[in-house]
Amino acid sequence: MRLPIGKVIYNLRKEMSVTQEQLASSVGVSVPAVSKWESGQAYPDITMLPSIARYFNTTIDSLLKYEINLSDEEVMELTGKCSAVLEQESIEAGIEFCERKLYQYPNNLFLKLRIGALYTSFLNQAKDELQLQDLALKATYLLEQAAQSPDMEICHSANYLLGTLYMLLNETEKAEAALARIPKNLVNPEDMLVPLYIKQQRFDDAKKLLQTNLYGRVQHVISALSTFAYICQKEGDPDLGTRLLQMQREMIDLFDLNAVNLLANNLEMTQFYAMQQDREKTLQYAEAILSSLQDCSVSSFTQGLHRNRLFDHVELMEPMQSTEYFRKNLTALFTMDNLFDFIREESRFQDLIERLQTIWSE
């Protein structure tokens, strides 16, 4: 491998705004000699290295190992070439090519991340278990170094990949520690903890985590459908809005979340149809609210959820507001909001308000 000392001298000279003539005069050589060093046609005599290092206020070690910085684009281009060798030639040839590049740029942590990720992506191409383990170890070694990067994007990406590799190498404690170092706002490491727990035969922990993640995602979809329906209403597209709220209700039924979400869905349906002044639908869902509210008095929020085998390990806090608080606000909404003026004289609506006011008086 060619030493990059010529490029090092050139870069240091430019950083100090020194001419070739000034450098040549200071270290006792000719200008053409300096030119040959910088063009790579020749190396400085080994006895000249101390003088050159002192001139640039650096060390011989740094002079010889000085790393020419690669841009992110250059790293991507370089790893693309590495990938081509791995893909078109062999794993062995690819590793050899990658290691030559790593030796050229020993301090570039982004390069180590990319080649570590590349090795990981080629694990399924290993010809036998021995080669697979070797490739996984090489990838782990590189990613462990990349995980020390002060660049948080490099650090978190390396830890995410390390979670997978540690599991493959049966180092489950290291896998859990690597995943714990990833902020949840970037990626949810809990998605990878599930197979880790299964590997450790911690099935209760895996099930609890799966249920918690599933519950959160279902609630996110339910909320998104509600917001989308509201936008459709504001934009004058009630047909799509209706379909979205129906989809929300189907989600609630599919995951058996009536105890948790049906009351809110009935209220949204009521308000949605009231905006369209659909008398029958508004009354239908307003009456359904009453039924949902009656069910809330029978069991608590979490008790209703824990009867569901899909979510019986999910731990949630009880709502801060009581059902009585909700009942009072709902009564105020129906009696004071002009949204319901168009059905205010309806006997069914008046009966609904009376029942709301006395629902738990018995």
Compact overview of the structure:
The protein has helices spanning 5-15, 20-27, 31-39, 49-55, 60-65, 72-88, 91-104, 109-121, 129-146, 152-168, 172-180, 190-199, 203-234, 238-254, 258-275, 279-298, 301-306, 323-336, 347-357. It is mainly alpha-helical and 362 residues long. Helix 1 (5-15) crosses helix 3, helix 2 (20-27) crosses helix 3 and helix 15 runs antiparallel to helix 16.
Describe it for me?
The protein is mainly alpha-helical and 362 residues long. The protein has 3 domains: 5-65, 434 Repressor (Amino-terminal Domain) (Orthogonal Bundle), CATH 1.10.260; 72-201, Alpha Horseshoe (Serine Threonine Protein Phosphatase 5, Tetratricopeptide repeat), CATH 1.25.40; 209-357. The chain is built from 19 helices and no strands. The chain has helices spanning 5-15, 20-27, 31-39, 49-55, 60-65, 72-88, 91-104, 109-121, 129-146, 152-168, 172-180, 190-199, 203-234, 238-254, 258-275, 279-298, 301-306, 323-336, 347-357. The longest helix is centred in the middle third of the chain and has 32 residues, at 203-234. The chain starts with a helix and ends in a 5-residue tail after the last helix. The model has no long low-confidence stretch (mean pLDDT 85).
- Flag low-confidence runs: none
User: How many strand units?
Assistant: 0
> What class do helices, strands and sheet pairing give?
mainly alpha
Oligomer: single chain
H/E topology pattern:
HHHHHHHHHHHHHHHHHHH
Shape: elongated
Distance between the first and last residues' Cα = 90 Å
Strand content: under 5%
How many H/I helical runs?
19
Number of domains: 3
Secondary structure: helix percent: over 70%
Q: Mean pLDDT, rounded to whole units?
A: 85
Indicate the radius of gyration in whole angstroms. Answer: 34 Å
The description of the largest β-sheet is: none
